[in-house]
Amino acid sequence: MREWLKQLREERGLTQESVAAGSFINRAYYSQIENGVRNPSYEVASKIAETFDINPARFFVGKVSEPFGLALKNAPIVVAHCDLNLRYTWFHHPNGVFLTEEVLGKTDEELGIFKGIPELVELKRQVIEKGKPIKRIILFDQPQGDRIYFVFGEPLTDESGKIIGAVTASMDITQEE
Fold first, then answer.
1. DSSP 8-state assignment for residue 153
2. Number of domains in the chain
3. What is the pTM of this model?
4. 177 in a domain, yes or no?
5. How far lies 142's CA from each of 56, 126, 135, 139, 149, in Å?
6. pLDDT one-digit tens code per residue, 79-96
C-alpha cells in the first residue's frame, strides 16, 4: 500500500474520484495505484503528481533506491531531496529515527523540532535561494544522544536547469568514545 499517497490525498481533503478525475485516469485504476496493487507508468505518475503538486519520482523511490540502499545500508549517511517548500520528496536513512514513508511529503518542522533542525532548514533555504552548494557541520539531538553531522546541500534542478528544490547528503562524524 502506498500509505504516503493515501495520507497526502486525505490531508488535502480529496477523494479517490477527484484525484482520478484531475489526473485523467479511471478511479478504479487510481485506487489500485494507491493500494499498491498496480504501479503507474511514468506518464500516469506525472499526471497524479501534477494533481498533488509533487515530484513524480516519488512513485519510484523504492526501485531507484534499491542498489543505492544496499551500498549505504550500514553507512552513517543520510541522503534526501526536498521541494521548494522544503517538503521531502526522497529520503534515505536506513538506520535513522524516521522511516522513509513517515518523512515523504513532510517538512523537518512537521517531523518534530530537534536540536539542529533550524540550522538544517536554513541550509536548505540558502541552497535554494543562492542556487549554489553549501556545507555545514550541524549538531543534532537524536534518541541515542547528540550526533554531529557534516551536511552538504546542493540545488536540485529540473531538465531545464530551473531550481526545484535541494539535495542534502549528511554524514555522521561524531567521534565515538
1. E
2. 2
3. 0.64
4. no
5. 31, 24, 21, 10, 12
6. 899 999 999 988 877 666
